Structures are given as C-alpha cells and as structure tokens.
Amino acid sequence: MPITTGQEYLSLLEKSQLLDTAVLTTLAPQVEKHSQTDPKRLAMTLIKNQLITEYQARQLMSGRYKGFYLARYKLMELLGMGGMGRVYLAEQVSMERLVAIKLISLTRNKDRQKQALARFAREALAVAALRHPNIIQAFDFVNENGMPYIVMEYVEGMDTARLVHKFGPIPWKQAAEYARQTALGLAHAHAAGIVHRDIKPGNLLVDSS
User: Which residue from 22, 26, 30 is spatially nearest to 9, judged by alpha carbons?
Assistant: First the structure.
C-alpha cells in the first residue's frame, strides 16, 4: 500500500535494513525535517546522499520493504525484464563489488520446475567455465528457497536494442564490428559445446568504454 508521510517512509526504511542504525542516526536531522511532509522529499534526500537507489526508493514508496536482499547480495536497480525473468544490478556486500543477478521465472508445474532448474544449473556451470572478452562471466548459481538466480559479471553499458532506440541506426562499420565480436564470443562458446539459443539485439551488450 502506498505511503503518505515521511514517518511511514522512515519506518519502512528501518524495516528494510538497507541502512544500518548508525547511518540512520547520522541522518536524523534531515529525516526529522521531512518526517511529517511528502515522503518523496525524504526519498530524494536519501537518493541525493547516495544512501539508497531510485529503485529502492520506488519500492519503499509503494509500501514494499522486503525482498531487497538475496543471501549476501543487495538489489540496487532493476536492469531489465524478459520472458526468462528479471535482471538486477546488485551489490555483493561481502566483497563490496557490483554484480548482475538474473532471477529466473519458473512454471508452477513441479515436474517442469525440476527439469528447468536442472537445465539452468548445468548451463550456469558450463558458462562459468568460459573465459572470453566477449562473454559475460557467470560467478554463481543459487536456488534460494525455490528462487533460482544466476550471479554474473556486471558490465556498465547498453544493449544494442536500446542503443538503436535511443540514438537511431548504428553506422554499418560499427555494426559490423559488433557482429564480429559477437561471432567471436559465440564461436568460443560453441567450441565448449554451448549453444546460446537466444541471440537478439536486446542480449548484445555494448560496454560504456
């Protein structure tokens, strides 16, 4: 249920465990200033101070305070959604590093769930063994209370579908270079016995460098 006051927002923030008690105490003057006003102002203050992300702020605004953590990973932003699930930017708290987490959507059919989990586990293990500059590295496969997810290397950038949508057609020489690098990555995976099965612009990431 959406919240209406800064005090309600603060209460959810404390329950979420996104910030420890020491940080909340330090922020007390600013929090008190906005506690009885529009919670959006409090959220903007927290975002400005880089204490929570826009995704976390939106979740709290909608009344959600659970689900920010998957084991030792803290969800930071929703990067994308698709038929196979959702991809999040997350922080591996113990290592203080950013990773990408793909939460896998499963059918409700238990037999199919088992088959899908076994397949995803095999694929994650195979991909984790790959080392190539044009392939995102997989770090871990976890099935936490029936919620399977893959932990991957986070690469800051934009997929080619969004690139075209934002900037228009890619110049042919640049597009040819992207195709060349894609082919190199696919050839490396194929040599290891792995077939991607879902090559499309939305799955081709161009890093920001």
Answer: 30
